[in-house]
Amino acid sequence: MLKFGPRIDGYYDVEDQLIHYIRRRAEAAFRRREDERAALTSVAAFEAYRERMRERFLKAIGGLPGEKTKLNAKVTGTLDRGAFTIEKVLYESVPGFPVTANLYVPKSRQGAAPGPAILFVCGHAEVAKAYPGYQKVLIELARDGFVVLAVDPLGQGERFQFIDERSGEQRVNWGTTEHTYAGFQYYLAGMSIARQFVWDGMRGIDYLLTRPEVDAQKIGVTGNSGGGVQSAFLMMAEPRLAAAMPCTFIMDYESYLKTGQPQDGEQNLYASFVDGPDHDDYLTAFAPKPVRVGLAAYDFFPIEGALSAIEKARKLYALYPNGAEQALDYAVAPTTHTYGTVLREAAVNFFRRTLRGEAESFKTVEPETLPPEALWVTERGQVLRSIPECRSVSALLRKEIQLQLPLSPRLQSAETLRADLAAVLGIGEGQPEGEAHWQGAPRARTIYPRIIAEPTVSGYKAEKIFYFSEPDVTAAAILLHPRKPEATGTELLLLPNGTESLGQERARVVALLEQGKRVFVLDVRAVGAVATRGSGRLHIEAHGTEFKLGVDAMKLRTSTLGLRVFDVLRAYDYLSTRKDAGTIGLAGVGNGAAFALYAAALEPGFASLRLESAPISLRAAAEERFYDTERVNFETGAWGLLRVADTVDLLAVLRPRPVHFDRPLGPRGRPLSAEELKVEFLSPAEDVGLLGAKADGWSPSFGGLA
Fold first, then answer.
1. Is 289 found in the same domain as 202?
2. Strand partners, 292
3. Pick from 144, 248, 262, 416: most CB atoms within 10 A?
4. Is 437 found in the same domain as 360?
5. Quick check: is 209 in a domain?
6. Do 175 and 155 touch, CB atoms closer than 8 A?
7. Per-residue pLDDT tens over the stretch 618-641
8. How confident is the model at residue 435, as a pLDDT?
9. Domain check: are 366 and 475 in the same one?
10. DSSP class of residue 409?
């Protein structure tokens, strides 16, 4: 079968086009945000802005739990380490959801007046609080007289969240992979897994306040890498903190975007490029309280971005009287990405000065650390293995979905549903000025197609076509004509790898041609002949090319799913100008089925819809403990999509057109049986006849059931 050569047969260089597209939109957003901050010339104006940033942050993470329930804290063991003790602490941030932590208590503080304490939030080390580099920070803070609570984050230390209850095996890799795996389910529900990281830290402060050794007015926070992320988020969300030292994380989005590197699930917040907060906003959220930023000179987080963020933040600190900008400083270590000796010493000295009013005279001594198992809070070193009745992060999300997104469908007009769907996909009127891709001018632009070749393949005439879906965004297609002189219409076909899939999909295409249909095989952006160059990681890897493109689009308040759906709509616009197109049907296979589903929902001109090997319910995937990442990802879903529509909800705008689902897949990626299909799909539709699933005798058809 026919396919394009490199660079659209040499006509256009496309491998960076989506990267450049995202960067152009992001840079325009960064300039708008700079103008917004430049207008802040008084404390009152800044504090109103800061409140907007807090609101946007909380919206992006999906808010925080509404109630502080009992901590049910207990100490499971104590270690005597000479100058201090280490208590093994277990508390519940929400009922049944245990957090493991070590509390370092200097013996000099026992029975003394309450004094300062530090919440230590761990970065991406597998053993978390027991990581030797982190232990050294904790030990030196404790030796200098600080009470320190070191908390295991989700997916690390003793809190792996995807251990199979039956086999006891770890099904999802620890740390960043876990964060992203669960994080995408949170995205679908319009939340971020960051909400749980933040809440665990806030409840850690609640625990510190139960201790007689702790002065409530003198609590600091520090951590590096993922702990730097948590420190920054807590600076935004937690007013009880008095001092903060986020390490090896602070930068700015513009500098990091240029690195092309991904970040894991909790670090990627919806609309943060266009709405904020950016990293300087995390610093100014703390103004005028003291902050020291810990930097590593050779970090993969660009130090140029960190220094830029600090400079921007200092300008806003300076709005406060008495040289308040001096409260924000930084320390640079001549190292790569680590909380090493230089930053450790800087941290102890910073907290000495800001929480105790003492001179920065501390000198580090390389301390002796303990093996991880010596610091275990639980008997078996994992909460899911040691506390069988405890809940997982998946269970927390499932409850939130059931509370916030009831099963009863939204009863709304087709026009309202289409507008809401376009907006959540990021191609609606809710986009910033000049960035709307759905309403008005973008679809009205004239398409100037290039038909660059007209070969005959196996007796079928073909056309190789490319055009611009929107400025500087190339779409490519191969149009095949049936042998019969009079075609019965055109099938717009979306294959898993676009035109690159034609060889494997020959039988499917020939069958359509023999039915007398033209077949228009489309390459939406970053697929097939217009594929984006790889990030150096496998496509299906947790943080590969698709993930990176998806999170960057999400930060722009759009989605790679939505942008591809827009390309399908523009393909419809193009075909509608062809006199030979006739009626236009739409079909999608695999992840292409998602592009087809939402395009058909948005464009009533598509005469029919066929979907093969598509997940039948994103809600089921979000509620499922283990789901299929090859079918449920940024190609098939978007932030907050479940707040507008699951597949069943789209029946209202798909009827009365013929709709067929072939081999519909369950959340774990295998074809559904007829009984499973009824549970996952048909039952909700039957509950409310207004959806139209059964109205007027219309219903979708299904094939290929297991």
1. yes
2. 329
3. 248
4. no
5. yes
6. yes
7. 999 999 999 999 899 999 999 999
8. 58
9. no
10. P
Q: Are residues 190 and 286 in the same domain?
A: yes
Distance of CA 519 to the CA centre of its chain: 35
Residue 488 forms part of a structural domain: yes
In the DSSP assignment, the letter for residue 605 is T
Confidence of residue 442 (pLDDT cuts 50, 70, 90): confident
Select from 338, 368, 390 the last residue of a domain.
390
Q: Are 141 and 241 members of one domain? A: yes
pLDDT in tens, 330-345: 999 999 999 999 999 9
Residue 526 pLDDT > 80: yes
Q: 5: how many CB neighbours lie within 10 A of its CB?
A: 10
pTM beyond 0.85: yes
> Is 294 within 8 Å of 343 (Cβ atoms)?
yes
Per the structure, the count of domains in the chain is: 2
CB 522 within 8 Å of CB 501 = no
Residue 474 near residue 563, CB atoms below 8 Å = no
Domain endpoint, select from 390, 406, 422? 390
Nearest to 283 by CA among 323, 245, 324: 245
d(CA 239, CA 144): 25
Structural domain contains residue 67: yes
Are 641 and 594 spatial neighbours (Cβ–Cβ below 8 Å)? no
Do 253 and 324 reside in the same domain of the chain? yes
- Residue 117, domain member (yes or no): yes
Give the distance between the most distant pair of CA atoms in the chain: 95
Domain that holds residue 170: 60-390
- CATH code for position 115: 3.40.50.1820
User: What pLDDT digit, counting tens, does each position of 274-324 carry?
Assistant: 999 999 999 999 999 999 999 999 999 999 999 999 999 999 999 999 999
- Tokens 């969240």 correspond to 161
Q: What is the pLDDT of residues 70-129, one digit of tens each?
A: 999 999 999 999 999 999 999 999 999 999 999 999 999 988 999 999 999 999 999 999
Residue pLDDT, tens place only, 471-497: 999 999 999 999 987 878 999 999 999
End-to-end CA distance of the chain: 31
Residues 329 and 384 in one domain: yes
* Residues 350, 299 share a domain: yes
* 640 touches 424 (CB < 8 A): yes
Exposure of 626 by Cβ count < 10 A (0-12 exposed, 13-18 middle, 19+ buried)? Answer: middle
| Amino acid at site 198 | V
Can you name the residues that pair with 519 across neighbouring β-strands?
480, 491
